[in-house]
Amino acid sequence: MLRLVVVAAALIAAMLPAQAATPLKIGIGLTKPPYIMAPASDLPGFEYEIAEKALAASGYRMQAEQLPPARALALMRADRLDGMLTVDEGIGGAHHFSEPYIHYQNVAVTLTARGIRLRHVDDLLQYSVAAFQNAHLLLGEPFRQMAMRHRNYREHPQQVTQNRLLFSGRVDVVVGDRLIFRYLTRELESPLPVAQAVEYHALFPASPRRAVFRDAAVRDAFNAGLKTIRRNGVYAAIAKKYQSLLEP
Question: For position 188, what pLDDT does the model report?
Answer without folding.
Answer: 86
